[in-house]
Amino acid sequence: MENLALIDSFSEFKDDKLIDRVTLMAILEDVFRNALKKKYGSDDNFDIIINPDKGDLEIWRNRVVVADGEVEDPNEEISLSAARKIEPDFEIGEDVSEEVKLIDLGRRSILALRQNLISKIHEHDNTNIYKQFKELEGEIYTAEVHHIRHRAVILLDDDGNELILPKEKQIPSDFFRKGDNVRGIIESVELKGNKPTIIMSRAAPVFLEKLFEQEIPEVFDGLITVKKVVRIPGEKAKVAVDSYDDRIDPVGACVGMKGSRIHGIVRELGNENIDVINYTSNLPLFITRALSPAKVTSIKLNEETKRAEVILRPEEVSKAIGRGGHNIRLAGQLTGYEIDVLREGAEEDVELSEFSDEIESWIIQEFHKIGLDTAKSVLEYDLKDLVSRTDLEEETIQEVINILREEFEE
């Protein structure tokens, strides 16, 4: 292979990787200088001339003419007789420039040079991809399902970039086929062995926040602010919204007439139940709203422990807790307060924590997860209902019920 049109011979990389011509020239020069160092020990006395217009490359070696028999460094010096074979009128002390052809480097060096060039271009390309997607972290992105693994879905975008959607970052109801278009947020981008690893998520709260920006014009325009989003992916979410314009109803604008605006978001999230709540800096009011659809009778806050004691009528308790304890758990995450639900007229009730000598703490914690913090709140449910609501065995729950009943029978 001659130097002439060498750059064009590597045009496949330029076209495939969308590498600009100037960068390709710089990579070419760097690769050739490394090859010259290996061949001659140094590249200091070499000129590499790249002509992007013609698409060719020239390598010239510069040496000083010395008397015959006095050459000490063949790379830096050339004997007078050898110099006069190039030009008959050379004299001692003059500089000689001689073009180096690719064939002079040797076949093995040429092969190594090509591999090095490919590696450098891939490295440059991977760095560019990393920078591109790093700037997209937290933004919505769409890619196509390429193949499905046991623990992840591999996606490709229009430029052939690979994205990974791990199982734990999917919504539980997600079901994909090869060729499906998938939306999610770019959650993280890392360089692993010079190759970018791009992780997509559909389960992150920010995905729901960005869907609000995409689907609701007032959010996109900044007239409505999404203050906080909490989710149990595929099950339930709570979104606190606010507006600095008193003329705008932020909840109404987000939901739309008969839910028309939020319907597309709900469908995208596998029919996830989304509560949109008016944000307020008034904490008791915010916690009350967060427990919707339950109606709170009264509320007592302990700002030091970040706990809220909420009193409700008995028929409102199940609404506050929600299926699987989802409603009360999300309300706590949204407001930043641990919420204890108490029933009206339950003054004689006893906290479950008071039974820690007889009931193991992890069992008490399981009841806490579904909003049952007192003895009477547990006893109001029958055995089968408690088995379905918790991860506890029937025998374990029956033992707890027996212990609690003894407290009130004494």
Automatic annotation (TrEMBL):
Q: Which GO terms describe its molecular function?
A: DNA-binding transcription factor activity; RNA binding
Subcellular location per UniProt equals: Cytoplasm
The processes (GO biological process) annotated in the record are: DNA-templated transcription termination; transcription antitermination
Give the InterPro entries listed for this entry.
KH_dom, KH_dom-like_a/b, KH_NusA_2nd, KH_sf_prok-type, NA-bd_OB-fold, NusA_N_sf, TF_NusA, TF_NusA_bacterial
- GO CC field: cytosol
UniProtKB keywords: Cytoplasm, RNA-binding, Transcription, Transcription antitermination, Transcription regulation, Transcription termination
- K Homology domain residues: 233-306, 307-409
The record, for Pfam families, names: KH_NusA_1st (PF13184), KH_NusA_2nd (PF26594), NusA_N (PF08529)
Chief subcellular location: cytoplasm
Gene3D superfamilies in alphabetical order: 3.30.300.20, Nucleic acid-binding proteins, NusA, N-terminal domain
Question: Which residue ranges traverse the bilayer?
Answer: none
Please give the superkingdom of this protein's source: Bacteria
In the record, the note on similarity to other proteins reads: Belongs to the NusA family.
Q: What is this protein's function? A: Participates in both transcription termination and antitermination.
| Assembly and binders | Monomer. Binds directly to the core enzyme of the DNA-dependent RNA polymerase and to nascent RNA.
Q: What is this protein called?
A: Transcription termination/antitermination protein NusA
